[in-house]
Amino acid sequence: MLETLAAMEQPASLLAIAAAVGLSKAGAYRVLRTLQDEGYVDHAGRQGYRIGSRSLALASLVGPRPALLQRARPVLFRLAAMAQATATMHLRSCEHRVLVLGTEQVTEPQKKRVHIGERAPLTSGCSGRVILAHLPVDEADAVVAQHTFTNSRAKLERELDIIRADGYALSFSENHLSLNGIGAALLDLDTGYPLGSIAIAGPDDRLSEGTLRTLARPLIAACDGLAPHLTALLGPKSSARRESLDVTIQDMVAAARG
């Protein structure tokens, strides 16, 4: 199913995918739903389905880096070197964010903090919450309702308001113990829709709240600079681009099989 979808213009409709793989509409939906739940496929509403962020992360392990990762690598390297910390890029996959690329400036090699394919809810950590904060209200509300308890919902909603005002999110020992971080969103140029995020993280004894806030401006500038390239690859018109993800991942699948 993934190989077929990767070869199609995306988003692709359920009927088109079912016909391409030789399944009934109901059978294709069940497979796609399972892939969507695991983050390998994203549902684009009435437009259909497209390759998801987790597929991209997996593809980055078995083949040449996709075009967007090639664009992002030097950006992350500069951020990591400036902060003497870890810089990572995350893409949205339904109610989660997926780590697709990272670079580290650490003195202890045994403390590797970049794990390609790592997945976490958008409600957890700066890299997820900064995406969540920029989602349309109805989408954000649905994610918040699914991943939080009633008594913590109001607190998270207040935090999302702060993130929207500041333009960045902070986290303190959330997804990883003793690691603090700051994240900014990668936004579609035309719609302002969040496609992903970039985060800087490091030990809490070096990256205090004050230090993290000094990184906000260069981090946001880096996101603004990378966003046009990411929009071309993942935005609503990405299926018309020569470097779109469907072509990239199709090439990777062929390379992996060969």
TrEMBL record:
InterPro entries: GAF-like_dom_sf, HTH_MetabolicPath_Reg, Tscrpt_reg_IclR_C, Tscrpt_reg_IclR_N, WH-like_DNA-bd_sf, WH_DNA-bd_sf. GO terms for biological process: negative regulation of DNA-templated transcription. Residues 1-53 form the HTH iclR-type domain. Gene3D superfamilies: 3.30.450.40, Winged helix-like DNA-binding domain superfamily/Winged helix DNA-binding domain. Residues 54-236 form the IclR-ED domain. GO terms for molecular function: DNA binding; DNA-binding transcription factor activity. Transmembrane segments: none annotated. PROSITE patterns: HTH_ICLR, ICLR_ED. Keywords: DNA-binding, Transcription, Transcription regulation. This is HTH-type transcriptional regulator KipR. It comes from Mycolicibacterium chubuense (Mycobacterium chubuense).
